[in-house]
Amino acid sequence: MKLTQYRLHVLAFTFVSLPLAGILATAQSAAPPRAAAAAMRDAMDRTIDPCTNFYAFACGGWLAHNPVPADRQRWGRFQEVQDRNYAVLRRILETKGSDADRRKASDYYAACMAEPAIDAKGVMPLQADLAQIDGLKSRDELPELVARLHALGVNVLFRFRADTDRRNASAQIADVDQGGLSLPDREYYLKTDARSVDLRDTYAAHVQRMLGLLRPGAGRAAEAAAVSAFERTLAEGELDRVKRRDPATTDHQMRLEQLQALTPGFDWKRYAAAAGAPAFQRINVNVPDFMKALDRALGSTSIDDLKTYFRWHLVHASASMLPKTFEEADFDFFNRTLAGQQEQPPRWRECVVQTDALMGEALGKAFVEEAFGPQAKPDMLKMVRAIKTVMKQDIDAAPWMSEETRRAANRKLEAVVDRIGYPDKWRDYRARVVARDDALGNMQRARAFERRRNLAKIGRPVDRGEWDMTPPTVNAYYSPDRNNINFPAGILQPPFYLAGRDAALNYGGAGAVIGHELTHGFDDEGRHYDGQGNLREWWTEADGKAFETRASCIADQYSEYVVAGDAKINGRLTLGENVADNGGLRLALLAYLAGPGATEKNVIDGLTPEQRVFVGWAQVWCENATPEAERLKAATNPHSSNMYRANGVVSNMPEFQKAFSCRGDAPMVRQNACRVW
Q1: N or C: which end of the chain has fewer CB within 10 A?
Q2: Dihedral of CA 109/114/115/121: which sign?
Q3: CA of 391: how far to CAs of 380, 650, 652, in Å?
Q4: What residues does each domain of the chain span?
Q5: What is the reported pLDDT for 20?
Q6: How far lies 587's CA from each of 161, 381, 584, in Å?
């Protein structure tokens, strides 16, 4: 199941969402130094020169013993953490607790696991929705149908939601954005190379197959062609991922009548009413040109072809809760073909993922009560304070920044809110209806519940206590419109953090994650928001140009890197994450040296404290992946391939060269080293 993040700067994110998991309580107990050192040593390959390929030096042992399992697209330390935690989440879901929300999560999981019951029902649970699609007689009836499909989590035509008002970050407004595609990115519809053409043909065959499963009969090839053609028209109107990195390109507030003028063929007032949105007069239209393209597409597409498009998206969005033939067919294209995953994961794992995605705080509350160690939160807050101190020193010493911008940057840094583990107030699921014998109905009601909750925010103040990740998530994020850094409980375990472990490794792992998220507030996107989360230009023109010059060095560096033999990383798409990686590790190292490293001089397994900070960073990113998954990531993901997240950063750091006594011409020493922060 995909989870779309809006303007969140996350540590790690892939097109196919990562499974969400928790923490084993025992992982937070004190770590014997020898055990921690052994784990570090076993992951390494000492036959590799660290100055030649540091990633291979730090991760070679782990990579050699951890091939990609057949039911994965990639296998790395993030997934390793998740798998250690699956047992906790599964046990929680398979044991009915006394808490009402936990029981609902268990019921959702049980219905998801009941595959014989799902198979026996066939497509019957979709009949009412299919009948509504079949009943479409004219374009005038589109608003009500589209609103219904959106409530079911079916991504057709566009996205509509409540979002933070970027010009007044204390308020929320209506927001409409491009959407309606099935392939991972607009370029999959537009590129003309042989691989892209073959993939589009395979996609059309998949749509034909799914429509045939839904309603056996002739004519499915023509219907699939109609879906592909309609989605291509939408793709042509989309703004590409790199341009969207500048938040100003998606900030177009206007009156509802102005949006209506962009799309005269679609009645927005009727849509908003059918969606159950509160009355509003202003809306942010992320991509006005897409709205024009949408209107043209609706006007030039027959009603029958629009029905086919809606049916396809409905069955695709529902496949995980339909009979196995649908689930397997959808997996075959979206996982096996697109990402190289050869086998489906066990059903229980998929049901854990979905339960966490749709009832995350009900599950997360139980998870925190059972498994969150007491030392993680104070340790993280201590590291946050130390790294913020170093970042202020970094800002104060930046030779390219004027005093005016420096003062504003420090005010923003001081305003950053630190959140560790889980929300202060848990989400209320009392109104959620869950039945142990209605898998598809549960999913549809859960999606509709979350949509109503989101739309109800239009016109209301921003709830700054709300989290955008569930507590068991193995990830972290920075939110520019709320200016906060967030570290869910799920990530606070090895290799990122372990209570009582060598401080150098904790700073290289969790400390660098903290620095990464803080740096996002000052990357190519985050720097456009002030300390209150408002989108405004607080940089002087000269300082903005100086930033762009430094950032361009990093963009050019990462654009040189190649994955899967022939796919280049897009240095502009990955710029924010690369800036955050480079800044994050440097801040963590300096904070360590000013703190524990000021007195710790011990050599462990032949590594000095400074060397262990670097190893701790690199070992977070140990990962094997299929070539297909790497190409997909390069095309759509704002994060670079894991090898370059390690090597790209250290090659820019003179501290690394000194720590490992690298020659000036070594591969891990860039002659044109890049640095923003």
Answers
A1: N
A2: negative
A3: 16, 18, 18
A4: 21-92+358-425+465-659, 123-321
A5: 27
A6: 36, 15, 5
Count other Cβ atoms within 10 Å, centred on residue 378. Answer: 11
- Other C-beta atoms closer than 10 Å to the C-beta of 353 total 23
Structure tokens at 463: 């709830």
Q: How many angstroms separate the CA atoms of 164 and 169, rounded?
A: 6
Amino acid 85: pLDDT: 78
Q: Is 517 a catalytic residue?
A: yes
Q: Which fold has domain 21-92+358-425+465-659?
A: Collagenase (Catalytic Domain) (3.40.390)
- Give the DSSP letter of residue 574: T
Residues in the chain: 677
How is residue 645 written in tokens? 């997240």
| pLDDT attached to residue 345 | 95
E strands, 180-291, are 253-255, 282-285
Whole-angstrom distance, CA of residue 172 vs CA of residue 20? 28
Q: How far apart are CA 587 and CA 391, in angstroms?
A: 6
* Burial (CB count <10 Å: 0-12, 13-18, 19+), residue 17: middle
The fold of the 123-321 domain, in CATH, is Neutral endopeptidase; domain 2 (1.10.1380)
- Quote the pLDDT of residue 96: 77
pLDDT of residue 33: 59
pLDDT along the chain (677 residues), means of 10: 56 47 35 74 97 98 98 96 86 89 95 98 97 97 98 98 98 98 98 97 98 91 97 98 97 98 97 98 98 97 98 98 98 98 97 95 89 89 97 97 98 98 94 96 97 98 95 95 96 92 96 98 98 97 98 98 97 98 98 97 96 98 98 97 98 98 98 97
Predicted pLDDT of residue 13 = 62
- At a CB cut-off of 8 Å and minimum separation 6, what does 91 contact? none
| Candidate list 223, 350, 581, 623, residue with the active-site label | 581
- Among 66, 106, 83, smallest CA distance to 19 is for 83
Strand order in the sheet with 9-10: 9-10, 477-479, 484-488, 417-421
Give the separation between CA 629 and CA 623, rounded to whole angstroms: 12
CA atoms lying within 13 Å on the CB side of residue 85 = 34
Q: Which residues pair with 255 in a beta bridge?
A: 282
DSSP for 374-442? SSHHHHHHHHHHHHHHHHHHHHHH-TTS-HHHHHHHHHHHHHPEEEEES-SSPPP-TT----TT-HHHH
Cα–Cα distance list, 226 to 21, 52, 530 (Å): 40, 52, 45
pLDDT tens for residues 496-555?
999 999 999 999 999 999 999 999 999 999 999 999 999 999 999 999 999 999 999 999
Contact (CB, 8 A) for 565 and 627: yes
DSSP 592-627: HHHTGGGT----BTTB-HHHHHHHHHHHHT-EEE-H
The two tokens of residue 341 are 């995953």
For the chain, the straight-line distance linking the first and the last C-alpha, in angstroms and rounded, comes to 35
Determine the distance from the C-alpha atom of residue 333 to the mean position of all C-alpha atoms in its chain, rounded to a whole number.
21
Angle at 477 between CA 472 and CA 478, to 5 degrees: 150
Catalytic choice (517, 530, 577, 630)? 517
Spatial contact of 405 and 538, defined as CB atoms under 8 Å apart: yes
User: Which amino acid is located at 611 in the chain?
Assistant: Q
C-alpha–C-alpha distance, residues 77 and 66, integer Å? 10
Buried b (16+ CB within 10 A) or exposed e, 487-508: bbbbbbbbbbbbbebbbbbbbb
Residue 623: what are its φ and ψ, rounded to 5°? Answer: -165, 140
